[in-house]
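Contributing new records

If you add data, match the layout below exactly. Sequence lines come first and carry their own label; structure lines follow with theirs. Keep one chain per record. Anything else will be rejected by the validation script.
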Amino acid sequence: MARILYAAAGDGYGHAVRAHAVGQGLLERGHDVHFVSCNKTIDYLGRHFPDRIHNVFGLLSVYIEGKQSSLRTVLSNIRRAATDLSPSNRAVKTLLKTFKPDLVITDFEPFTAMWARRYGIPYVSLDNQHLLTHCRLDRPHGFWADLLSAYLVIRLYYGGAKRYLITSFIDAPIRFQPATLVGPILRPQVYEKQKRDGDFLVAYNTGGDNRGTRSELERFNRMPVRAYGFNRVGNGGNVTYKAFDEAGFLDDLSGCAGVVASAGHSLVSECLHFEKPMMLIPIQSQYEQRLNAHHVQEIGAGITHDRLYSGALENFVDRLDRFRSKLAERPKASKHTVLEAIEREIP
């Protein structure tokens, strides 16, 4: 069996849950897998693979009121890189020399990919971002600056992969090779939950407290809301704010009437699996989220807005049954397709 090094971005839970699902699947197939990451991802993976995780420098985003601040993100990463990047690079090089992986998988983590190329180790890119660069897409109108920025970053960081494995719920033809489109990758715990249709909404906020979103949720009184990601615990109006707990969140997600959230790929994929209608508010300047939200609306699984307001919530709740009927027609994600695709790339 092969030695595989899985490098996952540390910014957001999507990369973490994908690394968990793929890494566990590869270990069950007899491969020796180690992980490198930082921040949220290393905290998450450390709970599942405590003896196989290595902390490295990673790029992180800065959010203000739920919106990504490009300037502060750049400045923060420059400050962190000044002290942390060199020791991190040394640690990665040492790991490559001692572990001697047969294959590197990078989930939007650019530095390990760079060192894999430098040492001549084949690497596979596994993420949903390469949908923008390697597939023909029905794109939302406008947002050209965000599209260009995302396109250039993806192209700049991730050249030279042996194969680009693109995980997506969007069925899009391949534009550039070598690329393979695979279905959404869900964390193992998702498959253990049974779908239920409850009488409450789940709200998931990215980037800390967002007063505007919080105010609108608290004014909404059609049904209870269970909210995560607002850096608070307790009640406000019809909203119950909860600290993030993976098991509790999945219980609520699998049993709710609908979801109000940003448009991250992993959460959208889990909502599709549980057949949960979505009201999506993409994080500004993140084109990939715009694309996800656009396609959720196109397939009839939910609606998208630039911001949350009370009329939008009312409209969303009024259309829940219509969204559910469309969701019931969607195929379910397979756990095995991506593992087989990875194994085909092992030298």
